[in-house]
Amino acid sequence: MANKTNTNKMHFAKLERFATPLLSYKEKSDGKYVRSGNDNNFPQHIIELYNRSSIHAAAVNAIVEAIVGEGLTANQETFLDKANHHNETWNDIFNKAALDFYLHGSFSLEIIWSRDRSKIAEAYHIDFSTIRAQEKDHRGHIPGYYISEEWKKYSEVGEDVHYLPVFNPMLKQDQPSQIFVSKSYRPGQQYYPLPVYMGALKVIS
User: Residue 7: inside a domain, yes or no?
Assistant: First the structure.
C-alpha cells in the first residue's frame, strides 16, 4: 500500500513588534517662545502614552505614590489646609506636582503674593504640558513662560495666551503673580527637561 504524502505545510508569518514612533523632543525657537518638539506637542504626546498604556500608567502611578508617601507635614497642620481660594490643600498641590514631575521631569506653580507683598498668599498648580518658555535673555535666563491648553492652534503667541514672569522674590512689588518651574538638568536641553524614562518611550504602548 502506497504511503500518502502529507501535502499540508506549516507557514510562519513574521509579526512586527509594535513600537511607539520616536517622539520629537527637540527645542526650537519660534521668535517669542521655544517650541517643545517639532510639532510643539511633546508634553501632550507624553500624556497620551500615559493614558494609552495601562502598564506604563501603573508604573508611573506607583512611583508617584512612593514620592508622595504620607504627604506633607507641618508643625501646624492647619497651615496645609488651604493653598488657594479654590480650597485646594497643599497636599492637593503636592500630589499634582509629583505626577507632573515624574511624567514630564518638571512641575510648575503659580505663586501669588499678598497685597502688601510680605508673604505668599496663594499657590496654584499649573499643568506642565501647558507652558512654553520665553526666549532666554542676554544673561541666559528664562524671563517667563506662556501658558495655553491649545498650543496646536498657535503659529505664534496670540494676545489670548497668558504669560507669567518667573518666580523672583526681588521683583514681587511689580510682579505679584509669578511662575515657579522646577527643572532637572538634562545635557543638551536648555529649556525643557525630559522624563527619566525617555529611553523607554519607543516601547511604551
Answer: no
